[in-house]
Write a structure and sequence with these properties.
12 strands, twelve-stranded antiparallel barrel
Length: 259
């Protein structure tokens, strides 16, 4: 059992590391067009074995430039827990622009692997998420997408910090865009069993081999609140976007629907 002194040192070190990660992530991203369909830093969430889950990912561009100004995205995600190590999910991307009817931007499939139950015998946790998609050209010029997401989480109550490294590449010969990278971070503080506040940073760096020399980076910072309304799970936030992006101020919400 850890002593109180060891716990205080651990919490202090955790806060320092979390702050360094978040600040470096903000500085390293540079000052694209569509707002992502999923604005979420993956942590230790995992579908229950043998049970389906439904999340509704939504975001709304409060202010920005055309064509994303006042754009609304709704992306249902249906997940299923295969076993203690694997879960799968399917996404349906929809978008509604001002004065237009809702339309689809395609579909994605994903599978996530974890070595074991989170924090069972360690404050560290990791997982890997694999994703493929068939997308509308206006959303993703190469249409067929592939992504691998490396997930790392560190927990020492009431703090939790997560880091995601996303590597994306088109699943076609001679794509118009090369391999891209993004680093997302989340620092969360648990108030009680029903309420958590968090700061999130999404830093898109663009192509690894950027031969154009033009800036490609996008950075978004969100403040979020995660809470429960009866059996509904709510993750709501407001974010400021900077860089090569037509959105400026974005509202996002992830709604966990009870099944």
């Amino acid at each position: 059992m850890r002593t109180r002194l060891e716990m205080r040192i651990s919490a202090k070190a955790f806060r320092k590391v979390a702050a360094i990660i978040f600040i470096l992530n903000s500085w390293l991203s540079q000052d694209a067009i569509a707002v992502p369909e999923e604005l979420q830093v993956y942590m230790d969430e995992f579908a229950d074995v043998g049970k389906p889950g439904l999340d509704l990912h939504t975001n709304y561009v409060v202010s920005g430039q055309e064509p994303t100004n006042h754009q609304f995205r709704l992306t249902p995600e249906l997940s299923y827990g295969i076993n203690d190590h694997w879960e799968s999910a399917i996404y349906w991307l929809t978008v509604t622009n001002p004065g237009e009817l809702p339309s689809t931007d395609g579909m994605k499939l994903r599978a996530k692997y974890r070595p074991g139950v989170a924090f069972a015998d360690s404050p560290f946790y990791w997982a890997v998420n694999f994703e493929v998609g068939q997308l509308n050209q206006r959303f993703y010029p190469d249409e067929t997408s592939g992504e691998i997401k490396f997930i790392g989480v560190w927990k020492t109550d009431p703090w939790k910090v997560g880091v995601n490294l996303n590597i994306d590449h088109a699943l076609k010969n001679h794509p118009s865009q090369g391999t891209t990278t993004e680093v997302d971070t989340k620092i969360a503080y648990q108030i009680n069993d029903r309420l958590q506040f968090a700061a999130e940073n999404y830093s898109y760096f663009g192509e690894i081999n950027n031969t154009s020399g033009l800036p490609q980076g996008i950075q978004t910072n969100y403040l979020t609140a995660i809470f429960n309304l009866d059996k509904w799970d709510i993750d709501a936030g407001i974010g400021k976007v900077s860089g090569q992006q037509t959105a400026d101020l974005v509202l996002k919400m992830i709604i966990g629907v009870p099944l």
